[in-house]
Structure formats: structure tokens, C-alpha cells
Design brief:
about 240 residues, five-stranded parallel β-sheet, alpha/beta, globular
């Protein structure tokens, strides 16, 4: 399948193409699905780093569209990993719902990367939701020993059952019900952050929510709390898809 102008751009930036094969599936909850895959030789070639992600290609009305997903438990020796899908309306979720062992999907690796914040922060402040769960877990594992305060937005009752890999001695979790298209989360985080950001240069803020929420919180953290740009990671992980 050709990947249109997006594929051309990724090729110009030396994106590497692979084909993944589904080997197993798990319905974690009604709204969250995990797929197990082989990597088509990717991990042996590229290695692994925290929060590593790939672009998957989905067909919609004859056109190819890419969506990014974080690798879960990547294993270069076996050439395997898992992907987790917070299910909603959209072509990626449609594919994940139907995926079965033997199915294949094309993928491109380009743009992924991770740099451990230096100097190490005194506290990690992380805001995300089910779509960001794999990245949040990978981030926490990449910063062992760093205390963290985490706001996790939930859309469904079953989201409370999702596997956040927390260390009770280090990690403080706040679950926030999604209301008003994310505005409730924004209000909750804004109310709590000033007391936690005593030294803006000594924290690390990770924001991975829907695009609108991410923009609002990133702007607040940078402009109102004066956290330096290099101490903030902000990336909108999803937006409602047009069918």
C-alpha cells in the first residue's frame, strides 16, 4: 500500500518501514485491547529506548493514514512487543477490535526518541489517560527513584482496572473522571500544580492527553508556572476522529 504524502515525508526523514504480524490478542476491558506482535526485524535493527513508539498505517476509504502507538514490553531477542489500544470511534480502534492472529499491518519507525532529563528532576509531574498508559508506564520505569505525582483521566469505570505500574513508596496517583471534554482535568491539575512546582527548573512535566487538554496544560505550565521548555514534554495523543 502506498502511504501518500505522509509516507513521502517520512521517507525524506529516513523513516524505516516494517511489517508487524499479530500473534495474540487480549481484551483487557471492554474499552481497552492489547495485541501481541512480531516486529519484522525492527528491534534487532533499531534497539529499544523508553517510550519508544511506531507509526501504524490504516486504510480509510482507499487512503492511508498513520497513527502512533507506544511499544509495550519490547524484546529485541525474540523480536516481539505488544501494543495497547484505548478503544473509541476511529479507524485505528476499528482495526484493533477485529485484529486476529496472522493479521499484518505496515509500520514506520521515525521520530521516536527519549532523553533522560538532566539534571534528574526532584519530582515528575505526569498527566495522561488510557491512550497514554503505555508511555506513562515506560516513563516511570525510565526514572526509577524519582518521586512522581500522576493525574490519570478516566472515561470508563473499567479504566480503574488498567495496569498503572506504580511504586506506592514513590508515586502518588490522582484519578480524574473525564468531564466537559477534558476541562475538568485541566482545572484539577491547575489547582494542584503551583504547590508542587516550588522550583520550576527542578521538576519534569509530562503531558500526554487529548490535543486540546495537552495544549491548555502545556501553555499554563510554561507561561504561568515558568517551567523551562526543556523540562516539559507535551504531546497530544489523540483527538476525536472524523469517520
Amino acid at each position: 500500500m502506498g502511504h501518500g504524502w505522509e509516507g513521502v515525508v517520512l521517507k525524506l526523514f529516513r523513516g524505516k518501514d516494517f511489517e508487524f504480524t499479530v500473534t495474540g490478542t487480549e481484551d483487557v476491558t471492554e474499552h481497552y485491547r492489547r495485541l501481541h506482535l512480531t516486529d519484522g526485524g525492527m528491534l534487532a535493527l533499531t534497539g529499544v529506548h523508553p517510550t519508544m513508539w511506531v507509526r501504524l498505517w490504516f486504510d480509510h476509504a482507499g487512503k492511508s493514514h498513520q497513527r502512533a502507538y507506544t511499544l509495550v514490553n519490547p524484546d529485541p531477542d525474540s523480536g516481539t512487543f505488544s501494543l495497547e489500544f484505548a478503544l473509541h470511534d476511529g479507524r485505528a480502534s476499528d482495526w484493533a477490535r477485529k485484529a486476529a492472529p496472522g493479521d499484518t499491518i505496515e509500520a514506520t519507525l521515525q521520530g521516536t526518541g527519549f532523553e533522560t532529563p538532566e539534571p534528574q528532576p526532584s519530582r515528575l509531574l505526569a498527566i495522561g489517560d488510557a491512550a497514554a498508559l503505555p508511555a506513562l508506564n515506560s516513563l516511570l520505569a525510565a526514572l526509577p527513584g524519582v518521586p512522581a505525582t500522576i493525574w490519570f483521566e478516566t472515561q470508563h469505570a473499567e479504566d480503574h482496572d488498567l495496569d498503572l505500574r506504580l511504586d506506592p513508596a514513590l508515586h502518588e496517583l490522582h484519578r480524574v473522571e473525564r468531564r466537559a471534554s477534558g476541562a475538568h482535568l485541566v482545572d484539577e491539575v491547575k489547582a494542584a500544580l503551583p504547590a508542587l512546582v516550588q522550583d520550576p527548573a527542578d521538576v519534569y512535566v509530562w503531558i500526554t492527553c487529548d490535543t486540546t487538554t495537552t495544549r491548555a496544560l502545556a501553555s499554563y505550565v510554561r507561561k504561568e508556572l515558568n517551567v523551562p521548555k526543556h523540562r516539559v514534554h507535551a504531546l497530544g495523543y489523540w483527538r476525536p476522529e472524523k469517520r
